[in-house]
Design a protein that fits this description.
This protein is of the alpha/beta class. It has a 5-stranded parallel sheet with strand order 3-2-4-5-6, sandwiched between helices. The longest helix is centred in the middle third of the chain and has 34 residues. It has 17 helices and 17 strands.
């Protein structure tokens, strides 16, 4: 492992500090590209305008007309946390804005597969819907959209995934990554796209005179004589937007950080759907001190577990209910499913790592890419296991499982995770062009993607995928690198600064602070045979350390990369280091 320090532009750090930003935060923000305090303004007024997201104006007109005509609306969601939160935002938001007939349908991962398929379109039509709205999917559903329109449905696609060569012929497409869209936040999550559509819809309804003028007398009659309602507030949806954004691991650009910051602010103040509060309780977390870590590692996995092992309807209902008792019941169910997911993942991870080890063939280096398939693997967990293998070997990785749908055992479903410098979806596209017929379906992003292949073509896929990696990745790309913020000054080893750092918005593309320097290891011991507890000396002062998942001892002096955390013992909170890596260690296997 190579540990690199981020470059800190001195002028930016100085400007931030002069503007009143804490010196440590000024240094951290400058290293992440922030050049002025204005960029740190997370006010709603600083959000990118909905008009800049291509298709929102047309979507607003389509939805406003549907509400006016009392049409039946059906949301078709994805079965991950982004899809679940996007569905909840759509249902809650459309009802707030006057839609009286809104329901949803979420595909089953095993039976239906991903996206708006032809059978899903048929089920939506059979439900009596007039308008089908996709959230977090649809941009690749060319056949499904065509089938829906042939059945007489109007179709609005809201998505954020990368489009294929052919766009679906929906009435309206809203996707920042579609050709011709100049929206600056290309990495907005699916839930964020839906939130923007609702903002545009409210603007359209306001322009049509649907809401009372705040400056007018209390009774502001509509043309029919009845009083106009006040304009609905959509900020109540921001906690859900924040959860979906972080859980989908999209890059936290300035706009996404504002969405997440606004959601966290409301959660910490106790203003959130009761289902979110129940999820915090089930996870043993305190919403008053909610962080992006809670979204990514506590709430998000519990919602995701429903789509992986059971029915995402459970997750969506937890986010939709206004009954606290029902929310607690659903959150407990999601927690139990997540525990089951962890058990399944543990067994799969061991077997997948064993299979990956066989690819070394006695070599000291791993192959440029890793593909594994297990006959007993659960397709709902392959993405998590792929992430674990990618983390261990620092190689683009695909993990495949046999499709569990009846009659489709000839298909394998795979989920992939990548490393910096290797665009996973583009790699799949090249494999498809070089080997026609191997990939039956595929889609995704640069760092995560999914595909379906014929069961008898796994060996072909494995070779083709590795060949692309061999061509695209050099030795530097295949060397694990950990970017850090350099040494930590001893005056910053304070519990109040740990709390300050935790309150900020960190995540993908805006990495949480990680420091690195040489420390003295005073003692070390194993905890539960799988974690290493350390006693360290940092700048002459003792500090506790914890290295989760580490079993090998570390030398008496080592350059460690670590994050700051707070540990509590007998009512006293102390700073501790959470170790992320050690300089000089090579890739381990065997």
């Amino acid at each position: 492992m190579k540990i690199d320090a981020r470059i800190i532009p001195p002028r930016s750090a100085w400007a931030l500090e002069q503007a009143g930003v804490h010196p440590l935060l000024a240094r951290l923000y400058a290293a992440r590209g922030v050049g002025s305090k204005e960029e740190l303004d997370d006010g709603l007024a600083r959000l990118l305008a909905p008009a800049g997201l291509h298709g929102t104006r047309e979507a607003a007109v389509l939805l406003a007309d549907a509400i006016r005509d009392d049409k039946r609306l059906c949301i078709v969601a994805d079965y991950d946390c982004d899809g679940a939160t996007a569905c909840a935002v759509a249902v809650r938001g459309l009802r707030l804005l006057g839609a009286r007939h809104v329901h949803y349908l979420v595909p089953d991962r095993v039976i239906d597969g991903y996206g708006l398929t032809v059978p899903i379109a048929e089920r939506v039509a059979a439900s009596g819907a007039d308008l089908l709205i996709t959230v977090d999917n649809g941009i690749a559903s060319v056949e499904g959209v065509a089938a829906a329109r042939a059945l007489g449905l109007s179709v609005l696609v809201t998505d954020h995934h990368l489009p294929g060569p052919t766009l679906p012929e929906a009435e309206v497409l809203v996707n920042p990554n579609q050709p011709g869209c100049g929206f600056e936040s290309k990495c907005i999550a699916g839930v964020g796209v839906m939130f923007y559509v609702l903002l545009a819809l409210r603007s359209e309804l306001r322009a049509r005179g649907a809401y009372a003028d705040p400056a007018a007398p209390t009774l502001d009659p509509m043309p029919g004589g009845s009083p106009r309602p006040p304009q609905p507030r959509l900020d109540s949806l921001l906690p859900l937007v924040a959860l979906g954004t972080v859980a989908d691991v999209v890059r936290l650009d300035a706009n996404n950080r504002r969405l997440v910051a606004q959601g966290l602010r409301r959660i910490r103040a106790g203003s959130m759907p009761v289902g979110l509060n129940a999820l915090f309780k089930a996870a043993g977390r305190d919403p008053r001190s909610a962080t992006t870590f809670d979204f990514g590692f506590a709430l998000g996995p519990r919602v995701n577990a429903a789509g992986r092992l059971a029915d995402m309807t459970l997750g969506i209902e937890c986010l939709l209910t206004d009954d606290a008792g029902r929310a607690d019941e659903l959150a407990r169910m999601l927690d139990a499913i997540n525990r089951e997911r962890r058990d399944i993942e543990g067994g799969m991870r061991i077997e997948a790592l064993r299979l990956a080890e066989t690819l070394f063939n006695g070599e000291s280096e791993a192959p440029p890419a890793i593909s594994v398939f297990g006959r007993d693997f659960h397709e709902g967990v392959v993405g998590i296991v792929a992430s674990r293998i990618k983390d261990k070997f620092h190689r683009p990785t695909f993990v495949f499982a046999a499709s569990g749908a009846e009659g489709k055992s000839h298909e394998l479903k795979g989920s992939g995770r990548s490393i910096p410098g290797f665009h996973l979806r583009d790699a799949l596209d090249l494999v498809a062009k070089r080997h026609p017929g191997v990939l039956l379906r595929f889609g995704g992003h640069a760092m995560a993607a999914g595909c379906t292949i014929a069961a008898d073509r796994f060996a072909t896929f494995e070779r083709a995928f590795a060949q692309v990696a061999l061509e695209w990745l050099d030795a530097a790309s295949l060397t694990r690198r950990l970017e850090t913020d350099g040494p930590l000054a001893p005056e910053y080893l304070r519990i109040d600064l740990v709390d300050t750092l935790h309150r900020e918005v960190w995540g993908q593309g805006f990495a949480p602070p990680t420091f690195s320097e040489e420390v003295e290891v005073l003692s070390q011991r194993l905890i539960a045979d799988k974690h290493l507890a350390l006693k360290l000396k940092h700048c002459g002062r003792p500090v506790d350390g914890m290295w989760f998942g580490r079993t090998q001892p570390v030398p008496a002096r080592a350059v460690l990369a670590f994050r700051l955390d707070a540990d509590e013992w007998q009512g006293v909170r102390r700073v501790r280091f959470l170790v992320e890596g050690m300089a000089g260690e090579e890739l381990q296997h065997g």
